[in-house]
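Why do we bother with a discrete structure alphabet at all? Because it lets us treat a fold like text: something you can write down, compare, and reason about line by line. To make this less abstract, here is a complete entry for N-acetyl-alpha-D-glucosaminyl L-malate synthase BshA. Read it the way you would read a sentence in a foreign language you are learning: slowly, and without expecting to understand everything at once.
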Amino acid sequence: MKIAIVCYPTFGGSGVVATELGIALANRGHEIHFITYKQPVRLALLGENIHFHEVFVPEYPLFHYQPYELALSSKLVDMVKLHKIDLLHVHYAIPHAYAGYMAKKMLAEEGISIPMVTTLHGTDITLVGSHPFYKPAVTFSINQSDVVTSVSESLKQDTLRLFNIKGDIDVIPNFIDASKYNHDFTDCQRTMMATQNEKIITHISNFRKVKRIDDVVKIFYEIQKEIPAKLMMVGEGPEKEPAELLCEKLGIANKVIFFGNSNEIDKILCFSDLFLLPSETESFGLAALEAMISSVPVISSNTGGIPEVNVHGVSGYLSEVGDVEEMSQNALKILKDEKELKKFKAAAKKEALKFDINKIVPVYEFIYQKAFEIA
Ligand code: GMT
């Protein structure tokens, strides 16, 4: 099959899922065309079956906002015609489902029919998409998709609650390629980050308000009062600077390392003992899954789709959003007892393996067939 994948090419979870899916589909013999404004960050190599087409938006001073959707839908039309693409798979509803729909309509004018699959990822529904300014267009473009998928049951329920959706939504969870997190081949370099007796706590995100970065710092503050520990903060975003200031204020700046964005998540997780994800809302929590596959237990909030990934008392612990005290106590319960830590590490990996890429990618292929039948 020739598949066009539209996504955000950044470090965000939706872009990562779209990229990993495209690579896996290419490995299974499909011809994949990524269509976006920059080469996706996790797409290291373009291969025989993998192509990237840049959407270029020329600056024009008359426009206060440059019309990306227009450039994207035009690019989709051109690429579908040039490469004889069979199917569009757009990740993140805004504005990709809308641009995809416009491309479909333009192609139909030329007698070309192409099915479109839309995958909802989270904030396109829970935060941004349901805003009154966007809601009619998001509802419309979801309803015009031939097949709609969501990355968790929780996100499906949110979508049905917040929008007037006419068709089905298929739940296809985020997935993980376990072979990329095989520590037998990774030099963990733990000693570069911490001394032997220090536990390593990690948080990875795009440092937006929704991630409750303050809570990450406060949980770590409580942990380090009782045991020697270091905190690894990985990612970039608006809450990074306030977090750095909070660390200074609490007198723990020497115990916290801010990495910025990293393409070496597997190496960082390799030497981590515990992962913190106290988000306000989270449709799935891909970062938690990446931690778990690296045998890192997760202390998280119990919001959104996180309980579908992190199993309370097995791969980590879940608490109400904002319950820093309970999260800190749960973290210490795991970290203070070596036997307990070992047990949680093994269980985290076992749970993560349920989301193995080889189980999930065929489900997408099945969905593509369904889209052909519907379109
Ligand atoms: O977590 C983010 O802020 C990035 C965001 C995105 O849209 O790129 O991630 C969302 O999609 C991921 C992949 O499906 C999910 O694992 C994340 O839970 C989801 N984020 C939120 O719902 C906040």
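What the structure line is telling us, in plain words: The pocket of GMT is lined by residues 12-15, 17, 92, 121-123, 151, 174, 206, 208, 210, 281-286 (CB under 6 Å). The chain has two domains: 2-175+357-374, 178-355.
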